[in-house]
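Moderator note: this is an archived Q&A kept for reference. The question asked for a predicted structure of one protein chain; the sequence and the answer are reproduced below.
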Amino acid sequence: MRRLLVALALASLASGAAHAHDVAAGTLEIGHPHAFETSASAMTAAGYLTITNKGTTPDRLIAVETGFPRTEIHTVEVDAAGVSRMRPVEGIEVPPGGTVALEPQGMHVMFMGLKAPLVAGQAIPATLRFEAAGAVPVEFTVEPRRADGTAH
């Protein structure tokens, strides 16, 4: 019996740690805010997360605040020639019952003016500003760059 209780406690801790940085704010759920480690010379980095609206009315992410000199919400557009370009957006609509993903090669948070590289394990405190939900504090966890090189 004791072994079973210890196993259940350990499993509970492990699953909680995997989602420890997910945040709920009213009807919004912010999932897995993260960024990838950067090279020593990088001046910018990108942040990713999901926003799920479990409510019945839309909300809108209008800003992200961090300790970096500039932080913007960006999207990636591909022109007719297949060239990708980033551009800032005024905000991101989160429809009722919907989920919006900020992910590589799509919408993302742009951290600009890095003074030092982002290192795996580091936490980046931030505040997401929503029209309805208001200020939502989160931490972007810096993760190792993926084996396939995928990162912003």
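Archived answer notes: Residues 22-143 form a domain with the Immunoglobulin-like fold (CATH 2.60.40.1890).
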